[in-house]
């Protein structure tokens, strides 16, 4: 209450009433395109704003005349006089020219960002200011939840465990690029957002390209591409510090400092932050750090170098296990219930947890070869270490009524496990905790040559080279009072029989990936027409080395390289009918290599001879409308996905054996309509909205699927038929809507609200269970709507610019299921679910210097 009173007193004291409004559009004078994120400041004051993605700005001023300074990193600054007439003045287009003496942003991938009314793709862009204002303690991908086609859920609710799906495709089918560098796992295509928990602090632009996308490197994204561009070195000296607090012990603080551009052409920017908290879900305590360093140097007019390094080491508890709805209802903790943690010696002990550190470093070189030709090259490296925890042994720690709990639906009492292990004495531990490690090294190089063939045609060519080695093993983390662990899994190589803390158990293998890609693209732009055509190809080669199931002398310990060649071609065109209307179309066909586990089956060096490329055909039509008040986009898309493989593994508790099935020839069809708009009825009010209607279904049945045991022997006399055709794709809401608004109640004070809605959200299901033609439909999760509100207040603090920011998410405390696994009866009683978060909040202060 004290904080609220201080805030109210603070806002009441802000009694500056605007005399009028100045507006305009900031443009790149050479490219004749908008400059989003340009700064417009009233000279001699702290009153300012930034331009939107179309370069537009609107600024309230408290005098009838004065000067405004218009600036953008890498461009010359303009100072303009204003004299209000009838309380307003429109500057029209304000052209800024590139500053030859400033450091360019030489991040290679910025060339893959789409340009409004030019690049023929469906796109949504979020700038750093919006992330800073709205994210709060949400997960980083949740900033995109008001974007058409996007569905984000927090999985079990641990720090960084969110999953993003785009147009019904999961993360392994959505390409994510940071500064042009692909970050999807080289073996399975997934994106682990906990590895990038600090990205929100250093992101300059986040752009979602739905469908084919504008990326020029050979990344075969099916659902779309997410391009994240981090901050570049600022040419102005200064920095900021911030501190944020929130629900459940959330604390975050950090800062940024920049040297500015020095006389010798050198500049540096450094950012650091720390985040801690208990987590909304029980047993998900977390601690994370983030760091970002950018060093840039201009050597002469033709060469620039930029070095960037960033990372986010973190550790957090997890809720790995989903539960029946009745379990959450019966628990005194409700939707916060988590059965995967407990107490040991009076302290919190996570049975399921995650820890990881994946620093990424890149060295970018920009070479202006001539007036018509440029070469951009990036060398990058990533070294990941960490994994996740679990348990193994006689004690049943997963069951909600486990005798090792303090009571029904209570935290685990791990002291009881310790007592049993101590009683075992020389027999060793009956139950242990382990870590499943996934360490890796990843090196790559990206190089793009751009040359102007004519005034209207540019030709681009590039290469994409990657090498990846992942080390996968389990290790004993805690013997829980015992003296050793008898590893029953090491039966072939006898690497370890008696294991102690730090020893490897169950498996130990390397996955190697070599990737060679290239592309060639021609771009045409003249007057109101722009078009492109692009061809790309990649060769993915896999190798597996198994140190656990094969002796060192066994030639089967290391496989040969298994290669898959995948071509692609895409093209599109945009036509600006007039200043308000534009239309575009794109079409593309590409193949994608199977993932690592689809090539090597059953966690051994058994090569799947039937593994083959997936094929994807995608087409899209779009329409855009732009006026000074309204901006709207309408898109219609259709994506046909052929030969999606399933490698289904499962454990039979009765036999104690692992089984797997190789399901081939599964097709899917994803099609839909998307609408988004931004409307500014008055100068200090902006209304944003979107509606997305998807129709995503599996599009084929599969015949004669065989199930095999660990020795590759079939366990059934004949294969089974799977009736998957017309079953809805699960895991992502097929209908989503959003409506929100930002209102500047006082100069520098913005009140905002945002409502999101999800419907036609189906459970994930086991395809092996659909072996009869009974028109199976997985359980449809009830629809839900969430309301978020926030307030931002900018003020002067000791002569410095300061910002007070607050957010309340799910302000109505709506209870909702965000993700489910289908049950035996395909209804709410048998589904296993994860709930989304209830009401959460953050309050933070940032001071610029």
Characterization of the model:
- By secondary structure, this protein is mainly β.
- The longest helix is centred in the N-terminal third of the chain and has 11 residues, at 2-12.
- It folds into 2 domains: 13-99, Carboxypeptidase-like, regulatory domain (Immunoglobulin-like, Sandwich), CATH 2.60.40; 238-390 and 405-489 and 496-848, Beta Barrel (Maltoporin, Chain A), CATH 2.40.170.20.
- Residues 1-18 and 100-111 have low confidence and may be disordered.
- It has a 25-stranded antiparallel sheet that branches.
- The protein is built from 6 helices and 54 strands.
- Which structural class best describes the helix and strand composition? mainly beta
The named CATH superfamily of the largest domain: TonB-dependent receptor, beta-barrel domain
- By CATH, the architecture of the largest domain is named Beta Barrel
Number of helices, where a helix is a run of at least 4 consecutive DSSP H or I residues: 6
Biggest sheet features:
25 strands, antiparallel
Which stretches of 5+ consecutive residues score pLDDT under 50?
1-18, 100-111
Average pLDDT figure: 88
Number of beta-strand segments: 54
**Helical content class:** under 10%
Distance between the termini: 30 Å
């Amino acid at each position: 209450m004290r904080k609220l009173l201080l805030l109210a007193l603070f806002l009441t004291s802000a009694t500056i009433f605007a005399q009028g409004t100045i507006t305009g559009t900031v443009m790149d004078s050479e490219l004749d395109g908008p400059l989003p994120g340009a700064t417009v400041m009233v000279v001699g004051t702290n009153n300012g704003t930034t331009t939107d993605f179309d370069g537009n700005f609107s600024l309230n001023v408290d005098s009838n005349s004065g000067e405004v300074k218009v600036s953008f990193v890498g461009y010359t600054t303009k100072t303009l006089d204003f004299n209000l007439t009838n309380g307003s003045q429109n500057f029209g287009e304000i052209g800024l020219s590139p500053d030859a003496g400033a450091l360019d942003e030489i991040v290679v991938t910025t060339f893959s960002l789409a340009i409004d009314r030019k690049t023929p793709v469906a796109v949504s862009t979020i700038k750093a200011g919006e992330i800073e204002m709205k994210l709060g303690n949400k997960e980083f991908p949740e900033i995109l939840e008001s974007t058409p086609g996007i569905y984000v859920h927090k999985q079990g609710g641990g720090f960084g465990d969110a999953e993003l799906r785009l147009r019904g495709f999961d993360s392994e089918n959505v390409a994510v690029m940071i500064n042009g560098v692909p970050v999807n796992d080289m073996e399975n295509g997934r994106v682990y957002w906990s590895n990038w928990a600090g990205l929100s602090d250093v992101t300059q632009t986040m752009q979602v390209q739905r469908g084919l996308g504008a990326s020029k490197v050979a990344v075969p994204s099916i659902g779309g591409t997410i391009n994240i561009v981090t901050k570049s070195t600022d040419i102005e000296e200064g920095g900021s510090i911030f501190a944020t607090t929130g629900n459940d012990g959330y604390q975050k603080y950090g800062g940024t400092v920049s040297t500015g551009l020095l006389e010798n052409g050198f500049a540096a920017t450094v950012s650091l932050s720390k985040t801690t908290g208990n987590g909304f879900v029980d047993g998900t305590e977390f601690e994370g750090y983030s760091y970002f360093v950018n060093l840039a140097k201009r050597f002469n007019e033709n060469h620039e170098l930029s070095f960037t390094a960033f990372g986010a080491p973190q550790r957090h508890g997890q809720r790995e296990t989903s539960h029946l709805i009745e379990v959450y209802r019966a628990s005194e903790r409700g939707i916060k219930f988590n059965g995967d943690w407990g107490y040991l010696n009076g302290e919190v002990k996570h049975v399921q947890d995650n820890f990881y550190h994946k620093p990424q470093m890149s060295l970018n070189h920009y070479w202006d070869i001539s007036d018509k030709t440029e070469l951009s090259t990036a060398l990058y490296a990533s070294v990941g270490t960490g994994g996740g925890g679990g348990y193994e042994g006689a004690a049943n720690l997963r069951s909600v009524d486990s005798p090792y709990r303090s009571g029904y639906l209570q935290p685990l009492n791990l002291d009881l496990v310790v007592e049993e292990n101590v009683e075992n004495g020389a027999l060793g531990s009956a139950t242990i905790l382990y870590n499943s490690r996934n360490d890796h090294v990843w090196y790559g190089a990206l190089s793009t040559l751009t040359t102007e063939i004519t005034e209207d045609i540019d030709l681009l060519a590039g290469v994409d080279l990657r090498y990846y080695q992942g080390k996968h093993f389990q290790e004993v983390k805690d013997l829980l009072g015992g003296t050793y662990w008898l590893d029953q899994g090491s039966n072939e190589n006898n690497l370890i029989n008696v294991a102690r803390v730090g020893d490897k158990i169950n498996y130990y293998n390397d996955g190697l990936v070599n990737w060679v890609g290239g592309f060639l693209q021609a771009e045409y732009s003249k007057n109101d027409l722009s078009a492109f055509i692009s061809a790309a190809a990649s060769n993915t080669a896999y190798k597996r080395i198994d140190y656990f199931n094969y002796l060192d002398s066994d030639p089967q310990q290391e496989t040969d390289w298994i290669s898959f060649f995948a071509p692609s071609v895409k093209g599109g065109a945009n036509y600006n009918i007039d200043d308000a209307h534009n239309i575009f179309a794109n079409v593309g066909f590409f193949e994608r290599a199977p993932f690592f586990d689809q090539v090597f089956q059953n966690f051994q060096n058994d090569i799947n001879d039937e593994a083959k490329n997936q094929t994807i055909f995608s087409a899209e039509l779009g329409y855009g409308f732009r006026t000074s008040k309204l901006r709207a986009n309408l898109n219609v898309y259709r994506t046909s996905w052929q030969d999606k493989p399933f490698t289904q593994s499962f454990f039979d508790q009765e036999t104690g054996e692992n089984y797997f099935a190789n399901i081939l020839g599964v097709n899917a069809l994803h099609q839909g309509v998307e609408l988004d708009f931004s409307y500014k009825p008055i100068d200090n009010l902006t209304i944003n909205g979107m509606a997305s209607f998807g129709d995503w279904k599996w599009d084929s049945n599969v015949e004669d699927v065989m199930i095999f045991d660990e020795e590759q022997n079939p366990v059934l006399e004949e294969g089974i038929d799977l009736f998957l055709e017309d079953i809805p794709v699960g895991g992502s809401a097929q209908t989503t809507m959003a409506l929100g608004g930002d209102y500047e109640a006082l100069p520098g004070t913005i009140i905002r609200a945002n409502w999101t809605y999800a419907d036609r959200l189906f459970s994930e299901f086991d395809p092996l269970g659909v072996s009869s033609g009974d028109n199976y439909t997985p359980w449809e999760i009830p629809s839900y709507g969430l309301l978020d509100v926030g307030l931002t207040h900018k003020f002067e603090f000791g002569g410095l610019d300061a910002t007070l920011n607050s957010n309340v998410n799910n302000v109505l405390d709506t209870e909702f299921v965000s993700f489910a696994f289908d049950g035996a009866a395909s209804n709410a009683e048998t589904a296993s679910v994860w709930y989304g978060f209830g009401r959460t909040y953050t309050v933070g202060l940032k001071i610029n210097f």
